[in-house]
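If you are new to this repository, start here. Below is one unmodified record pulled from the training split, so you can see the exact layout before writing a loader.
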Amino acid sequence: TGWTETFDHAAIRRGHQVFQEVCSSCHSLDRLAYRNLVGISHTEDEAKELASGIEVTDGPNDKGKMFKRPGKLSDYFANPYENEVQARLANNGALPPDLSLIIK
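And here is the target side for that same chain:
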């Protein structure tokens, strides 16, 4: 028996769906990468498919330029805002809390 067997995997999957559809417009998941979903709420193939749906700025390439690439399992969930100032401006001065540790 491992520590992941104590989680309600179906509830975590539903929670991720709610986050994606509702919460992600304001809240971040700074400490979670797509790989963290594997074996908890999604299969590896499902997590790879989710990750590939985002574009990540990466680089620099051989010419010193940054470039966009499809997401991969090691990438973290994207923040809805560029920075804290933008987040506060969009939310009447309040900074929406990061939800990556909400269950701790």
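Two things worth knowing about this chain: The first helix runs from residue 9 to 21. The radius of gyration is 16 Å.
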